[in-house]
TrEMBL record:
It comes from the Bacteria. Residues 686-698 have a biased composition (Basic and acidic residues). Signal peptide: none annotated. Coiled coil: none annotated. This is Type IV secretory system conjugative DNA transfer family protein. Residues 673-698, 715-734 are annotated as: Disordered. Gene3D superfamilies: P-loop containing nucleotide triphosphate hydrolases (3.40.50.300). It comes from Tsukamurella asaccharolytica. SUPFAM superfamilies: P-loop containing nucleoside triphosphate hydrolases.
Amino acid sequence: MTNNTAPPASPSLRPGSLVWQLLFFPQPLGETAALGLVRHWAAQRHAPQILLEARADRSGVEYLVGSQLRHAGQLKRQIESLIPGALVVPFTPEDRQPARVARRLVLTSRTRPLAPVDREQSVRSVLSAMTGLRPSESLTVQLVLGPRRRPTLPPVRPARSGQSVAGRLLRGVESERPDARQALIRKLGEHGFRAVVRLAVDAPTEERRKSLLLGLASAVSTVEAASSSLRLASEQPHRVNAPRANWSLFTASQLLNVAEVSYLSAWPITERDDPLPGQPPKHPKPLRPSAAYATGERIIGMASAPGTGTPVGYSVIDSMRHTWALGPNGTGKSTLLLNLIVQDIAAGRPVVVIEPKDLVRDVLARIPNSRIDDVVLLDPLDEAPVGINPLARTLGDRRSPDLVADTTFGLFEALYGDSLGPRSSDILRYCLGALALRDDASLVMLPLLLSNPGFRRSITQVAVKRDPIGAGSFWAWFDALSPEAASTVTAPLSNKLRPLLTPTLRAVLGQTAPRFNVRQVLTENKILLVPLQVGVLGHSAAQLLAAAVLAELWQAIRERVAIPEDSRTPVQVYIDEVQDFLRLPTNLADALATARSLRAGFTLAHQYGAQLPKPMHDAVAANARSRICFQLSAPDARLMTAGQSTLAPEDFMSLPAYAVYAQLVRDNTAQPWVSASTAPPPAKTSDPDAVRRSSRERYGHPLDTVEAAFMALVDPPAADTDQPVSYGRKARRQ
């Protein structure tokens, strides 16, 4: 949305005071748009004085527009409306470097128009003359547009211009050449101004000032025509440095039509995509935020378009429609996630973070004192790790053993998909069904269930009694297999279950009665942090643990359907490197669509689109309606620009580090794309070791305790493995 207000002014400024605004042109600036704006000014019946400046220093060329304060807001609106993509922002007058030498350009003909042979090359020549400046040097082209002139038609036989009075007395009034009338029509047949054109320079030495000024004057001369040229006249520098706010009747001016104003303005007018000297890069394109972005409480950064600097954010409810963060390593993606996580923690919301790098470590250093007790650090590498048990049913858990088994089976199905195979699926279902009937079961029992006959019989006997037709017939068939046949049948499944026996996963998933349940995230507003260092854990183990956490979390989210929607505290789930860790025991697209109404918002981050399997990519693209893009590769840039004309793929590909394009949902409406800069990491407020220690003491189990329980399974006291052996508590009564 265009801001139509006037620039902020000092209370001491009066409506008639001269104010300056900085003008940013779109690239390329088309001739049609530029002429349309100047023609609009020339046709105004109420004709305020307008000053146009092109100012160059060693950093490039910038464009100013000056007017009385009373007209500044209207001028801003006209520019931004008539030149799509233009931005006008306030400018401090003190930033105008004063000139030491000035000259005024004078046309040699009042009735012949300027006519460059090649308009774009003239623009390039002028801008080239304004580049290559040294420190403390500057060049200025200033146009003062005064009273307007309406179009007129010349006489059918116009008098020859330049004929002396004596010539008229001796020979009469001579007519112009046949083509002169067409030249007059081009000069006088369109709107114009009484105008002043000044060139100014500042440099340490007289020789350098002369060189720069003559170079600029020569470049401007490329707009001359055979019958109309430019010459330099003396001018006082103070008229450039401190111009009047209103037009003086005694101003030495000349007539310029609309086209001539554009020729002499040094505006970067071109129809080509080639970069012009002294101009900022065409990409990335700055985009202003809509007003809705300023009202969101979850801030992703600050608007980076010139003259903005306002927060860019969205609401907590809007974030329930999920967020897609895309960008390669080193662009600032982790810093963005850190800032959002810290905001959610400070607001008291439940948070889940699953990531493979250093994000959790950074979060631990930014926990408010009021929330240290809420932190649950599920780190499999900890000396007293927090455990989870998908097979456990806590007090008040109304799920049946069959539902627990089915939910846990969905975990493996989501992880391995079709590679699980029908036979392995059948074996896994009955194994989980048997384990779910016990109070002391855990996932690490699965490999033992397949390989240890005595342990298997102690576990399956309850399932056989409960379901003699289904479970009974299956386990009768399985127990009848020879050791070689059983090994062959279970080998594909054993390969997938073997990571459960690694020490790190054993320490987490082997706890039969962990002190933490994932449901506490939702019921007690916990902060669950899950660092998964793939280089230490291994890829398979990290994926399995992430799948277990998400399966438990998703089941807890689904159970919120029994709670009135207004009573569901929004939970924020962050998954970095989502392609490795997002495995849900249901269709992902359906899960994301359902999560919104259950007040669960997912922020999904990864490096590039090709990382995602097609079903996952389609689900994320369809359901993550808020998008935050860092520098993208060409395929991803084309994807983000599909269906819109505001941005080009080159814009996304040219973003520097910590710069984003974002399209966020506000009030269920996708807002226009906005350019923003993400905030730096927030200040550290806590001791990570102290937070880790607090989590360990509240929710962790010492490793030796967990290992002792596991070894009791592997090497039970009972030596006779042919007889049923009881492990842990008794089976649940059905």
